[in-house]
Amino acid sequence: MNETTEFPLEPAPFNGESREVDPGACFDWLQQGWTMFLVNPGVWIGSTMLLLIMLMAISIVPFFGQIAAHLLVPLFGAGMVQICRHMGDERQAEIADLFAGFRHNAGQLVMVGVFFAAGVFGLAFIAFLLVSGGVFGGVVTGKIAGFGIALGGVMLAGLVVAILSVPVIMATWFAPALVFFHDMKPAAAMRASFDAGAKNWLAMLIFGVFLVVALFFAMLPLGLGLLLLLPIFSGAVYASYRDIFVGT
């Protein structure tokens, strides 16, 4: 005898499944980020100012402050996408939402931060070894040839860091949203984030290039452009998460 199907059916549990989108979708994400900023500029600017002040204050402490700041990035990232969700659902967003990651799944988000910090400082250490090796070799060799060796060391360091940073960025790009919204474990969230980035590598590449260029110009007027860039970027990340992941 067949079992009776009960309605309404339970929704399928979220498993981090992602889909491939058109590369041009990245421009739609940015447009949505801008639109989301216009919904409530006051909350966005207030949240961004508070975030930057806190991160700068923490980073003042030599070495350990830098580590702490990187560990907290996923927690604040969860807060920024929470602001996005409230605005997207036409609910009242508040500056206090910036700390939502400290109230839900904080430990799991910190573990994502551990991976992020390990990747960043690991890459910095590799770059230091390559650059210092090139400079030392340049000093030993002589003036003209030494300059070429030193420059080669710097270029090699930049190339290696750029290549190795890609998997770190891909694994942590969507992880805060997946951990915060769907209670995924850090390892599973980072694997799902990496898979989503790999499926949509061209869209993510275009988005990343735009971000780097925009960051350069945002830093020119004493970094004041970050008050606009970070909210738009957060809204675009949220839009890409909703676009790429199935069941969100």
> Mean pLDDT score, rounded?
86
Main sheet, how many strands, which sense, barrel?
none
Task: Please compute the radius of gyration using only Cα atoms.
Answer: 21 Å
Q: How many distinct domains? A: 1
- The portion of residues forming beta strands comes to under 5%
Enumerate how many helices there are, as a single number: 10
Quick one: how many beta strands?
0
SSE diagram, text form:
Elements: H1 25-39, H2 41-59, H3 64-88, H4 100-103, H5 106-141, H6 143-173, H7 175-182, H8 186-199, H9 201-219, H10 226-244
Explain this structure.
With about 250 residues, the protein is mainly α. The chain has one domain. It is built from ten helices and no strands.
Keywords:
single chain
How do you describe this structure in short?
By secondary structure, this protein is mainly alpha-helical. 77% of the residues lie in helices and 0% in strands. Helix 3 (64-88) crosses helix 7 (175-182) and helix 3 packs across helix 10 (226-244).
